[in-house]
From TrEMBL, chains A, B:
Top-rank lineage group of the source organism: Bacteria
Keywords assigned by UniProt, alphabetized: Membrane, Transmembrane, Transmembrane helix
UniProt membrane topology term: Multi-pass membrane protein
Entry's localization field: Membrane
Acyltransferase found in the keyword field: no
Organism of provenance: Phycicoccus sonneratiae
Protein name per its UniProtKB record: APC family permease
Keyword set includes Transmembrane: yes
InterPro entries: AA/rel_permease1 (IPR002293), APC_K+_Transporter (IPR053153)
Length: 652, 652
């Protein structure tokens, strides 16, 4: 079983690429759109002339970031990713900052990918139009259900659609270039329209223009999201892990860059006009096209142009694009709980999120992620453009912090490293990371400056909330730890109670009661008595009679209950024992039904549960549940085990 | 403490009347409206000429019903009410039918009373208009909060508003009669309008007319809701309980009847025109008044006419009416959980609803009631007229069944009763109950016939669902009971395990662990070992080292955990012990933190909890929680106790 798992899950490069790249690659489905429509605010000409330059800058940044992360992969093969790098080199606060950013980003990855996927589907299947938000939520629900059921992601499941997507996009690009060269590349449907500038953007001064270009650029940086995925997944690679991871990273970068540039160039050649507010900005013969006009995604328009003579291609592109976007969203469903468990390990999130091997721990994470993402999709009506505004800031927060951390890392090692060759390598790495830090830092500033009012502010706020929440949790755990530590030489906690006073709670005489009595007797306590609460006198006397008839060798004591309560009389009685002989240990045996369905749980054990809870507050009292397995409970246990999401990227 | 309670809560008649009558009396706030607007469907004249006759019939029915219930009160002083009468005399199915009807009715009592109260408030405070539903939900929320906090209803709290209400309404009536006699009773504002028949009601044939009259009558029967309250509350009365209860019932009936008739007569004298669809039915000079016209409740219009020269009176009436309607709703908040606990006692609802003395049990009931009522208020937009359609059917189902039950009751007793005087009394009672049964049965048929399509159908459906749900729960409990009964002479369940194998789970060495070890050792098991799960090897070896350093006198065993799980390795190990020596008892000691806040609960004990749950499925294993009370847990216990709703009417 275990070895199978290992065999199944350690990934060769050709599987690792699709598993970790889907997020990064999928952004080619919306990044170009964002560049075009932002430039388009100032009218069609700017978009046509500047888009490819903007794209080039984005590509440059991407190259640098990928170079930098190749260093991370080598230096931190453990899979802690940015969080680990930041924590180790810049301290827990920095790590927590990165963590908050990543958590927010996972939510946005789902929201953006799904929204984009839905918009994409709409350009192929008209009936989706107008119901984007609903469809989006449904897709999220399906993903959630799948991940809750614990379907283990298999490399293959990722490989097929991802490679199909690469093939489709690059195939489209090649075919487009070919038609361009052979001079029969048709124009996009929107080419016949003119793109009027948005109000207030008609005459832009140099500064305003620069600002707009920067805004377009930072929108385009959406293409970089998901680049860090591999650095979190090194353990999942086959040996030599770091080398393979680094290579895969490079591969992924190259492909992403190629796709992005091709899309932008094709969009230009086919004269795509893409507007943020199509109804008013797009003019046909000088007249706004109005609300009836439906604006396809750039990918959609380009494919329709390139495959003008081959409609199947259009549908294919749109389908695989939709698929990879869903996969991208799914990576978040895997990453979020994993990061959660790392944070839990460090005491920043509830401990149980760390516990492996049961799905419950991860279910919470999955549900939180899904809920938050669905909320965003509804609030922003599945509008990618508006969601993007929140998106990129988190990515670059973690990029920047982690790159700064890497520089620190190399500084530390350089202090001890003697071997000149090694020093040379470290120097080089340090330069690369330094450049990476500077560049991503700059981009972060640009993003903040250009997008803060457009929504990035919300993302920052969310991060802050998470940051302080996690800090508070950690503080709580520390407080408890201090409260529980035993001073050296302090032995009073090892003192044995003098006697054991055992009490078996009895409601009526049935198998669970008899078992409880037998178990209690087996522990040979100093005192053993059965206890019942006299709620209905006649019932009690009946019980007493049967007790004697069966001559059960344990005395039965009945507590009066003026208000027909059960809990309080028992608690009071136990307390009285404690006060009479404080050094005794009181053990209360409570028979408990083990049932098979949640609704049966509602029908049983409630008063036992309440009693447990109440007794726990009394020191010197121990509560023992004596389980009785009802027939319905059979087989339930097996259903409790099952695969857990994120195994693949954890390399388990 | 206990005696105080008793003193505080056993009710003299003058307090019992307001406590139990608020529901019945409050219906005068909406019953007349329903009669008028139903008749009004056929135009103004019918309403003017027939309303008081309809009211008379309602009064007649009420008299009969009250006479009948005086018999119940004497025969069943235990407070089981209709449910008990039906179960005892007609069997559990009949009882369950009544129970379903009552549960549905409690929900409707809240919905109708609150909605009517809000409509009433609207006629005094204009700003409420248009937000009825919202205001209604808010009021329900407030009531819920109060009842959840466990405010004990005190007789006084009921007495003041109820007596104020009686005083206000009867005072208004007397003043109105006086002005009428002295000939200066002004007309209502709507008197100047004409009331046009609703489409389709212009020319009613004899049959249709009769049907309409019946419909008006069954709407008017809303006045009877809450009459049975006293028969559920006999134990709360001072001795002689039954006599006092019967007298109070009579008193209540007289007052209710007086109020109802006065309202109807005053409405006629002041020429109130009241329409179901005021905008189109009410004409000013032949033209519909339209949506701008706001139609006050009958109570509102009458008070404005009677107190034309004394506006304060109008406000007063409207305020006390609002108050008593809220009180009426509150009675449901007390009755619903009480009935729930009786049903739970009989195994028709989850057992824990029966457990007294902790608020949790009742909280569930309160929340369910509030949720359902709020839903109705929202769905029906706080429209009393539409809610009434669902309301009355439940009342008369329970009236009818319980009266039939009473007849059976007397038959049974007559078989054994010898004393002629006694027989005579029983005969008389039987006649009364027989009449009661026949009459309420007839009304029930009328209600069903006239209202089924208008909404009574939904009520019936809801009752059916509850009926079968409760039947299913009972079946489940019976199945479990059979599964657990020990055959006479079957002693194998008393067999003692041969040895006790104790296992203490250890994560790290702190006070809770040491306490668990001490407790485990105190029980002197045959075998005792400490168990830890090796998730992080270095942590484990550190633990082992400290273990030896502190020379803890218990061997520490470390289980390997390939997947960094905690639960499964332990479960597997325990099972292996069971298989090696099946006759041993395995006791697993789990240290558990006792915390003070729910959110701390989220941060602790989760893996312990999971482990407990898993181990419970293995027979021959007993799980002992060894509590460690964290500082934050202090004082929590006290907060757990508190008064419980419905105490007053249970006479506790």
């Amino acid at each position: 079983m275990r070895s199978d798992r290992l065999g199944e899950t350690l990934l060769p490069k050709k599987l690792a690429l699709p598993v970790f790249a889907s997020d990064a690659l999928s952004s080619v489905a919306y990044a170009p759109d964002e560049i075009l429509l932002t430039l388009g605010l100032a009218g069609g000409t700017l978009a046509l002339t500047q888009s490819w330059k903007i794209a080039l800058v984005v590509v440059l940044v991407m190259a640098v970031v990928i170079m930098s992360y190749r260093q991370n992969v080598h230096a931190y093969p453990s899979g802690g990713g940015d969080y680990e790098v930041a924590s180790v080199n810049l301290g827990p606060r920095a790590g927590l900052t990165v963590a908050s950013a990543l958590l927010v980003d996972y939510v946005l990855t789902v929201a953006v990918s799904i929204s984009s996927g839905v918009q994409n589907a709409a350009s192929a299947f008209g009936f989706v139009r107008g119901h984007e938000a609903v469809v989006g939520v449904v897709v999220i629900a399906v993903l959630t259900a799948m991940n809750l059921r614990g379907v283990r992601e298999s490399g293959a499941a990722f490989a097929v659609p991802t490679y199909l997507f690469m093939a489709a996009v690059i195939g489209m690009a090649l075919f487009g270039f070919y038609r361009r060269l052979s001079g029969d590349l048709p124009l996009a449907e929107s080419a016949s329209l003119t793109l009027a500038p948005e109000d207030g953007y008609e005459q832009l001064g140099g500064l305003a223009m620069a600002f707009l270009l920067l805004r377009a650029f930072s929108s385009g940086c959406a293409a970089l999201t998901g680049v860090e995925a591999i650095s979190n997944g090194v353990p999942a690679f086959q040996k030599p892990k770091s080398r393979n991871a680094a290579t895969t990273l490079l591969l992924m970068g190259t492909i992403a860059v190629t796709m992005l540039m091709s899309m932008v160039v094709l969009a230009r050649w086919t004269g795509v006009h893409y507007a943020e507010d199509e109804a008013t900005q797009l003019l046909r013969d000088g007249v706004p096209v109005g609300d009836t006009y439906v604006q396809d995604t750039v990918m959609g328009q380009v494919s329709k142009a390139v495959f003008s003579n081959f409609h199947l291609g259009v549908v294919l592109v749109s389908i695989v694009t939709g698929l990879i976007l869903v996969l991208a969203a799914n990576t978040a469903f895997n990453g979020f709980p994993v990061l959660g468990s790392i944070l839990a390990r460090d005491g920043f999130l509830p401990r149980q999120l760390h516990t492996r091997g049961d799905r419950l721990a991860f279910s919470n994470g999955i549900l939180i992620l899904a809920g938050a993402a669905a909320a965003l999709v509804v609030i922003f009506d599945a509008d990618v453009t508006r969601l993007i505004q929140l998106y990129i800031v988190g990515v670059f927060v973690s990029f920047t912090v982690s790159q700064i951390g890497m520089v620190r890392h190399w500084n530390r090692h350089l202090r001890v490293e003697k071997d000149p060759a090694g020093r040379a390598r470290m120097m080089r790495s340090r330069v690369i990371n330094a450049v990476g830090a500077t560049m991503s830092g700059t981009v972060l500033l640009v993003v903040l400056a250009t997008k803060f009012i457009h929504g990035a502010g919300y993302a920052i706020a969310a991060m802050a909330v998470l940051f302080f929440l996690m800090l508070g949790i950690r503080r709580h755990y520390d407080r408890v730890r201090d409260e529980l530590t035993v001073m050296e030489g302090d032995t009073k906690h090892q003192l044995l109670p003098s006697r054991v006073h055992a009490i078996v709670l009895v409601a009526k005489i049935h198998k669970p009661t008899l078992r409880a009595l037998a178990y209690a007797r087996a522990t040979r306590p100093s005192i053993l008595e059965a206890l019942t609460v006299n709620v209905e006198p006649e019932e009690t006397s009946a019980l007493q009679a049967e007790w004697d008839r069966r001559d059960i060798p344990v005395p039965l004591k009945a507590l009066d209950s003026p208000y027909r309560e059960i809990t309080r009389p028992v608690v009071d009685y136990v307390k009285s024992i404690r006060t009479d002989s404080p050094r005794d240990l009181v053990v209360v045996y409570i028979p408990q039904y083990v049932v098979g369905h949640w609704w049966e749980q509602l029908l049983h054990n409630q008063s036992a549960l309440r009693l447990r809870t109440r007794l726990l507050f009394t020191p010197g009292v121990m509560v023992s549940s004596v389980p009785w397995q009802l027939a319905s409970s059979e087989g339930v246990e097996d259903r409790m085990d099952g695969p857990v999401v994120g195994d693949v990227r954890r390399g388990e």
